[in-house]
Amino acid sequence: MKKSTAGIILLVVCVDDIVITGNDHAGISDLKAFMHSKFHTKDLGELKYFLGIEVSRSKKGMFLSQRKYVLDLLEETGKIKQSHLMPDDGDPFYNPERYRKVVGKLNYLTVTRPDIAYAVSVVSQFISTPTVKHWAALEQILCYLKKAPGLGILYSSQGHTRTECFSDVDWAGSKFDRRSTTGYCVFFGGNLVAWKSKKQSVATCEIIWIHQLLCEVGMKCTMSAKLWYDNQAALHIAIKENLVSTGYVKTGEQLDIFTKTLNGTRVEYFCNKLGMINTYAPA
């Protein structure tokens, strides 16, 4: 990252893939010329594909998806209401390595598919000794993905720069260790920027990190972030440096897609709330 009076330049590098963005257009041009002279890099123009993530633009905004990644995964696994799972649930799966490989790929898919974050977090708990029933749960996730491989997240201007977080807890929801699952998602400017489904995670840490990151890249965050919750336990969260304030949201309106198994209608409802669309769906 480079800041100057002309603006800011952000450089993202992963092995031999590079993304350059920012508002210092002259500086970006100079950087591209320098990199070409030193490393013979090739300018591929506007970002369209990066590490399996497809990027497209329209009048509505910027759309991120992993459609090709999903289709490749379905082809590889032969797959063109999730129940509660237990560690020793059924006979051992004959190919644990394959189970771990598919779970790893599904974890990366959650980069643009928050709708499967909870389901993937559940099957990820059994990678050491998976059973046939655990593999059946994986197949259910793959069948769900097959219905809409092009589903992704739309980023568009909402006319504000507020930071909001919705947090939900499934208290002692795990049947075998009685631990709670915390799910949260963070919106900046009305757009989804972070989400997680994990046993006993802390949403405020993510909010504070995002606030600091936004300030570092030059965004003006004058208002404190808002944490919406549906339980009294959130009142005990430490509010640091006035970065986070709390608010109450009705349980029926909470984004419990990150902590519970839902039916198709509720999944579609929450996908809409998260700003997810399918640009490949028939008009």
UniProtKB/TrEMBL annotation:
Q: Does the keyword Signal apply?
A: yes
Q: Which UniProt keywords apply?
A: Signal
Q: Which SUPFAM superfamilies match?
A: DNA/RNA polymerases
Quick one: signal sequence residues?
1-21
- Reverse transcriptase Ty1/copia-type domain span: 6-77
Q: Which domain of life is it from?
A: Eukaryota
Organism classification: Eukaryota, Viridiplantae, Streptophyta, Embryophyta, Tracheophyta
Name this polypeptide is given: Reverse transcriptase Ty1/copia-type domain-containing protein
* Annotated InterPro entries: DNA/RNA_pol_sf, RVT_2
